[in-house]
Design brief:
With 248 residues, this protein is an all-alpha fold. The protein has helices at 10-17, 46-52, 89-102, 106-122, 126-140, 144-157, 162-174, 178-191, 196-208, 212-225, 232-244. Helix content is 57%, strand content 0%.
């Protein structure tokens, strides 16, 4: 079964592909390397000095003098350096979202958004990915209700997973469950506030609920986190006119 991430952006992909298309999900933070090496020097005691003194040729018939073993307490101690920091999945995602927010090239921004969704998909357990794949198959056949059930089952395993919440919100939008979509997106954005696609879907949902000010706020957040959303400025002006009225 395919568990490929959704294509960007989710809302437009779902509108385009359902029911004939599938539900397709729209830098690495370099770990800080903390290298430290400390050497502790201890003053040498008499035994250690004897151990390092030059050897004298023994007198014939006289037994060799025993050389004392070095005192481990007084030996040079070099602790091993700490292991380099390995960035967590959350840190990688946050770094990628920051890169999206500052990227000025359309193609690179699109590539970064795909990378971010790939990282989000990694947060879903294997059993959840299977259910996500089944939801994609149901949506291809136009069965939004069954797709929602699959995603709801996945969310019983990971109720706070922002990626799954966003996917179910998109399916609920298609099924005209706008209130349910808003609820899912509110949870998703608590756990992943840098997800521009969740903000974009929320803007569409609030618009359909005839909440123009909430829609404008949501889309403003979407553009803050992804300034190069397709037709972003045009869309913003439309929502601004709906919220504030068309200027004279």
């Amino acid at each position: 079964m395919s568990t490929a991430p959704l294509r960007h952006p989710v809302f437009h992909a779902l509108k385009r592909e359902a029911p004939s298309g599938g539900l397709k999900p729209p830098a690495f933070r370099l770990g800080a390397f903390f290298m430290a090496a400390a050497c502790l020097f201890y003053s040498a005691g008499p035994a250690a000095m004897a151990a390092t003194a030059p050897a004298h040729k023994p007198v014939q018939g006289q037994p060799h003098a025993a050389i004392p073993a070095p005192d481990s307490k007084n030996s040079l101690h070099v602790p091993p350096p700490p292991k380099p920091h390995s960035p967590s999945l959350k840190e990688k995602l946050e770094q990628t979202e920051q890169a999206i927010a500052s990227e000025q090239d359309d193609q690179k921004a699109h590539s970064l958004m795909k990378k971010a969704d790939t990282l989000r998909l990694y947060s879903v357990k294997n059993s959840g990915r299977i259910l996500l794949s089944e939801a994609q198959a149901e949506l291809k056949q136009g069965h939004t209700g069954d797709a929602e059930k699959d995603l709801s089952a996945a969310l019983t395993l990971q109720p706070d997973n922002a990626f799954l919440r966003r996917q179910r919100a998109a399916v609920r939008f298609l099924g005209n469950d706008l209130t349910g979509a808003v609820q899912d997106l509110q949870v998703a954005l608590v756990h992943d506030p840098g997800d521009a696609q969740s903000w974009d879907i929320l803007a569409h949902t609030q618009e359909h609920l005839h909440h123009p000010h909430q829609a404008l706020h949501a889309y403003t957040e979407a553009l803050t986190h992804a300034p190069l959303l397709p037709d972003g400025q045009k869309r913003y002006r439309q929502l601004e006119q709906q919220a504030n009225g068309i200027p004279d």
